[in-house]
Write a structure and sequence with these properties.
Blueprint: H1 5-12, H2 16-40, H3 45-55, H4 59-91, H5 93-122, E1 133-141, E2 144-146, H6 150-159, E3 163-169, E4 172-177, E5 183-187, H7 194-198, E6 204-205, E7 220-223, H8 225-232, H9 235-238, E8 242-245, E9 248-255, E10 270-272, E11 288-293, H10 299-313, E12 327-332, H11 333-338, H12 341-372, H13 375-383, H14 388-424, H15 438-463, H16 468-474, H17 483-519, E13 529-535, H18 544-559, E14 564-570, E15 581-586, E16 598-605, H19 609-613, E17 617-620, E18 634-638, H20 639-645, E19 655-658, E20 667-673, E21 688-691, E22 699-706, H21 710-724, E23 730-735, H22 736-779, H23 781-785
Helix pairs in contact: 1-2, 2-3, 4-14, 5-12, 5-14, 5-15, 6-10, 12-15, 12-17, 12-22, 13-16, 14-15, 17-22, 18-21
Length: about 775
Amino acid sequence: MTLPRPLARLRGLFRRDALDADMDEELRFHLEMETRRNLELGMAPEEAARQARLSFGGVERVKEELRDGDRARWLEGAWQDTRYAARTLRKSPGFTLVAAATLGLGIGAATVAFGAVDGILLRPLPYPDPERLVRIFQQSGPDNRWGVSVADYLAISEQQRSFESVALFRIGSATLTGGGEPEWVNTAPVTTTFLRTLGVTPAAGRGFAPGDEAASAPLVAVVTHAFAERRFGTPARAVGQTLVLDGTAHTVVGVLPASVRDLAGWRADIWPVLRPEAPERRGPFSFRAFARLRPGVTHAAAARDLAGISERIFPIWQAGFQDRQARLTPVPLREAIVGNAGRSLAVFAGAVALVLLIAVANVANLVLVRSVGRQREIALRAALGAGRGTLARLLLAESLLLGLLGTAVGLALAAAGVRLLAVAGPWLPRLDQVRLDLRAAGFAAAAALVSAALVGAYPLLVGLRRDLASSVRSGGRGASQGRAARLFQGALVVTEFGLALPLLMGAGLLLHSFARLQEVDLGFDPERLSTARVTLPSLRYPEPPDVVRFWNEALRSIQDLPGVSGAALAQSLPPDNQGDVNNFDLLDRPVEPGGAEHVAPWVSITPDFFATLGVPLLEGRLFGPADTAGAPPVVVVSRAWAGRYYPGESVLGRRMRAGGCAECEPTVVVGVVDDVKYQGIGRSAEAVYSPFAQNPMSSLNLVVRSTLAPEAAAAAVQRRMRALDPDLALQGTGPMEANVQASLSAPRRWAGLVGGFAAVAVALAALGIFGVMSYTVAQQRREIGV
């Protein structure tokens, strides 16, 4: 089989005998064809052969053959240069290892950054037509956005014209019983339209059916693949099984595919059916709504549709929700999930880009230092007839090989970096989508190609501008750069430090901020404090008096434990567990009609909460036995809250309407306590506390102060709780100091990440100075010797 000419030429680079044979065969074929044509024209055989040979000696044919020959010689020369460059680099293992490692460090870091940006920001969501998925918020300003209520969801479902389907879910947790020890699991009750809206089909069983929301239908749930395997062995065996969540039985009707780890940005083990009941007021806004746009409907059209719904339902619920500026707003689902991660990734990518530029500049300097010893070799090649193009090809071949080695090192470092980012990096949404795949490998190859071109261009421009003939005559003595080249190289080193400086400043600022966060007064003493979250099964504790009775008994039992000096219950825990946020309107300083009401963290607590945490009372009184469900509603506020709304004034006796309830009895402020952080260590300490007896809840945090070690205290508390109710599961048992450290985790990791890049940048910049000094010494070696 005769190969096409380009392939035959390419094969000839590796098999010269094959190339010669192919060319002879091709020429013989054309001569025979031309001779046959001449015979058909009536020429004698000898004359026909002679004319055929003459026809292949024409000018155009000669030019074509010369062009083919030049092309073949160029390819052959490139292959020879590549082999020579490989031998040269092999003879200098120290230089090759340092250059490849330096390039690999920059390329590997850049590849990890690309993988993070690609996986978090660019990669589409794993749903059919993900660009048509939106999350619906209540929004009253560019940065003031919150969830929706059941009233909002029902109005959207009945009145919208822009969506194929609308779904609702609420994040939560539950105690799973019936299969050995009680287990705390993450749950997310969803409407029957949820899976259909996202476009997810269970791998086993079925999804939700419209009839599953009926009050008379059995309660059903869909579970994750991992949960089905852990609980039942296989997904197929999970279908039809019964799960008891908070004392209520649910039948498993479907198992999600193994690739589905979360839905709409939330990860849960069990997705029970949600049955929205007719609301009595506009709030609470503790639900998440999602929708799929109809084909051809734009986000702007959907926004107008939802704005109209907001206008129509506002008068219906105006007595309990007075913010007329709030609008139901659609936001692309990916944007809603990613949030502000783009800003964090921009910082990460910027730090990586600086490191990559410094690495390229360093390798360029190292290549130039090495080229000092090769001046005579290059000059001899030029004297023997090698043109500047040939010399450039030789030097670029070495740079490309260095780039190839850097790519190999970079991919290895990137593989480790992706794993390290997932384990020790700062939390980012969709972090599980970051992986080293073909897209990342392609980016690494592109980065290596650009880096190699930059590395080779600088020594190439400087080296080939010298007087090569004088280098031959001098035998390499006194070889020196021009003043402009020396200045340029010095400027390059200065630039390296200039590139490292932003990283050093950023790391310094982050470390300073982290140090200041560690010095922030939390408002309480976390030492010897243990915490746990407990949820009471609603089936066994259906009414508020049942809930209050159990918790009072539980507190008495725990306070009797040896070494326990205090025990209390709280809806939220500092410093990050904000829990519930409630709106309120001060009666003596009301907001303008139709304006947004104030909001603040609203924490339901038992009377001993402040004493257990060590929070002092600054003014007024704390909660007492008289603050029960039938008594007038009262609250205690933090010093920061009082300072914001009544600066320089007493807040005692101030009245407010809480939760948008215009018909409810006003709530009275009876005390002020010192600040406790609920919205993060570095954020405001505004908080409002309400008595647990006036707002009993089934799911609360238990706080215990004791002289025992946290592990021993947690074990003792768990035994007491199990003695009261064997089906209770405690979540998050551990010392309060762990919560504080978790709050500091994100700034600590960002400071460590940027600080690590800054250290690498300074080390590379120092390596650049080493390269310049080595080059200067190499130039003046003979002078120094004399």
